[in-house]
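User: Can you help me understand a structure? I only have the sequence.
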Amino acid sequence: MVANDMNTALDTATEPADTLDEYICREEMQQALQRSDVRAWAMTFFNFTVMGVAFALPAIWFNPLTFVLSAFLLGGRQLGMAVLYHDCSHWALFKTRPMNEFMGKWVYGGLMNTSLKAYRDYHMGHHRYAGTEDDPDIGLARTYPATRDSMRRKMIRDFTGQTGFKDVKRQLSRFGMRRNAAFLVSHSILLALLLLGGIGWAYLMWWVGYIFAYQPIHRIRFMGEHGVVRDLLSADPRDNTSTTLVSWWERLFIGPNHVNYHLEHHLKARVPCYNLPRFHELLASRGFFTNHDCLSRGYREVVRRATLPLATAPTA
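Assistant: Let's start by predicting it. Here is the structure, written out as tokens:
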């Protein structure tokens, strides 16, 4: 009951001035909100299959190309794990709350060394206060659009591992057996499976992916959500949040599990990620996005929009 009340309050807080009822009927909304264990498990299986391929690639053919490909496949699936525990934090991925809690804490959150409870507390604040100064993400969002020099420095830090090493150092400084129990369990199982497959050394690829690939992927993903918007302090989600329309390869590496449909998620936080594409299609067909600059076509456009043109960049 608490979960339903919390998400209902978030939905109400993030609805635009012209309500969704003007675009989608009650039956269509109920279909969008429908949770499916079959689809949740299928999405989980796909993510772990891609991870398995990523670990196997350098073992089958060890060269620089497969090494880099493996790192970026893992970086994309690490974001995929984050998307899945994100949906679990909304009790939206699986049908039952206990399954969302278990998988979100011990599997997806465990692999990413993220406390489901701590993440939920923070993330609910982001939904509740989106479009206001109290949004916990507004400080980061305001760093965009960035100057070309600033964007270049950000990307160099990410791709050279500076951001990743700093984050790992932060995690180690807070490490504790009880605090990080889910991480220890999930990563012990991961390492055991790789050892059974005769490629225990490939476990290091997880950290290569996290340090050198996940960080830039995570940054580009955030820019596509709140870094290219019209007005961060607008009450209308179409002004303070955006969606990125992606190709298949962008979905594989940068926008896994339909995370690119972020505006749709802000409109109804309880819509499971696997229902977001259909939710978007319905809204688009009814003209919901018309006259609102809230859609980017690919992450290349996202980076371009998040970077100030030279003519408008400050000279100081």
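Now, to help you interpret it: Residues 2-305 form one domain. The longest strand covers residues 243-245. Let me know which part you'd like to focus on.
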